[in-house]
Amino acid sequence: MIMMKSMGTAMVVGASLVAAALGADWPQFRGPAGDGTSQEKGWVKNGAVARTVWEGQVGAGYSAVAIKGGRLYTMGNRSGMDVVVCLDAVKGTNLWEYAYPCPAGSYPGPRCTPTVEGDSVYTISREGVVLCLDAGKGTVRWQCNLAKEIGLKVPGWGLSSSPLVVGNLVIVNAGARGVAVDKATGLVKWSSGAGGSGYASPVLFKQGRVTAVLVFAARGIEAVEAATGKELWSHAWKTGYDVNAADPLVIGDKVLISSGYDKGAALLSPTGTACKVEWENKNLASHFSSAVLWRSLVYGNSGNVGRGAELRCLDPATGAIRWSHKETGFGSLILADGKLIVLGERGVLSVAEASPEGYRELWSQKVIDGTCWTMPTLCNGLIYCRNDKGRLVCLDLSGK
């Protein structure tokens, strides 16, 4: 083993790495398609012990990791400074950092996962500063302070949106129905008012021939035209404390929304400038862990932090529960090769078949301590997990 110093914290790097099944990069929150899924195969062996490839400290927060071209990007907060960090995804070595003043706030640290597009990295702070950095060097290309530009009112727990790049625009969930800035200049191209934002990230949605974006705002779901911000339709959805935080899930031409505090879920069917509610119930109440879709079934975490939660399989056609599993508790999940990768809030990583018949665990191991509310990431055969204090671990589950 080789001990390496980076960011003032020791990183453990394996002397050699096992060749893994190569997959697509994971360049943004919730992966290549923004839906929490990966196409990778061969990354886990039943019964294998997770090998720690490297570990490091990136600063307090809840930012997941984005990976492109062998470089990993994430965020943290240290002593009142937000830090955008770039590491070698395989070795864990520090390539660059960019820091700027930002109070850590309650539940300290940034929530944004960086978005990598072309040779740029886009981020947003919990106070509304949108940044464009050079992906290779970490130098600032532009920044846009939304509080100054549009008088943005920041929600109680800080902005939690990750940026969505659509054409020449960078769109974030800020204001009543989102804000878009020019990805080359940072100039505001459209906005929707100063207040009312939720905590979810914007999601791409195709409505007929129109490229749209779904914005889960404070009091409902808003569908807007990506190019102009024009409202296409909306649906009121009031959750306790205005915490609409789990990303909407696109299911064909329909949209599944879910939130915690015993609010539940609904399947919406947009029709022109309105939407029909196909069903609404309390069978999936996602606090801020977004669900995934596999073979026409939805898998998601239902329940709130500190109030009990469980993993559930839901039939989106009817809203009926196919099965529930309590042992994983509150956590976040992604999907790859028909398998659920679930990180529980106490650091237990589990892999289970995405099966309609019930929870079928293939692998489970405690891999990290602390509070883990950030979704794991799978990229090129390696899994990345972090806790709220900023400890980041890179794991190999292949058993080779």
What does this structure look like?
With 400 residues, this protein is mostly beta strands. The chain has a domain of 122 residues. 1% of the residues lie in helices and 48% in strands. The strands form nine sheets. It has a five-stranded mixed beta sheet with strand order 3-29-30-31-32, with no helix packed on it. β15 and β16 form a beta hairpin. The protein is globular. 52% of the residues are buried. The N terminus is likely disordered.
Helices, strands, pairings?
Layout: E1 2-6, E2 9-13, E3 37-38, E4 51-57, E5 66-68, E6 71-78, E7 81-88, E8 94-101, E9 115-117, E10 120-124, E11 129-134, E12 140-145, H1 146-150, E13 164-166, E14 169-172, E15 179-182, E16 188-191, E17 203-207, E18 210-216, E19 220-225, E20 231-236, E21 249-251, E22 254-259, E23 264-271, E24 274-281, E25 292-294, E26 297-303, E27 309-315, E28 320-325, E29 331-336, E30 339-344, E31 348-353, E32 360-366, E33 377-379, E34 382-386, E35 391-396
Parallel strand pairs: 3-29
Antiparallel strand pairs: 1-2, 4-35, 5-6, 6-7, 7-8, 9-10, 10-11, 11-12, 13-14, 14-15, 15-16, 17-18, 18-19, 19-20, 21-22, 22-23, 23-24, 25-26, 26-27, 27-28, 29-30, 30-31, 31-32, 33-34, 34-35
Compact description:
With 400 residues, the chain is mainly β.
Radius of gyration: 20 Å
Number of strands: 35
Biggest sheet overview? 5 strands, mixed
Count, helices: 1
Tell me, briefly, the overall form.
globular
**What share of residues are in beta strands?**
over 45%
Mean pLDDT: 93
Structural class estimated from helices and strands: mainly beta
Q: Give the neighbour order of strands across the main sheet.
A: 3-29-30-31-32
- Percentage of helical residues? under 10%
The end-to-end distance, rounded to whole angstroms, is 16 Å
> Poorly predicted ranges (pLDDT <50, ≥5 residues)?
1-22
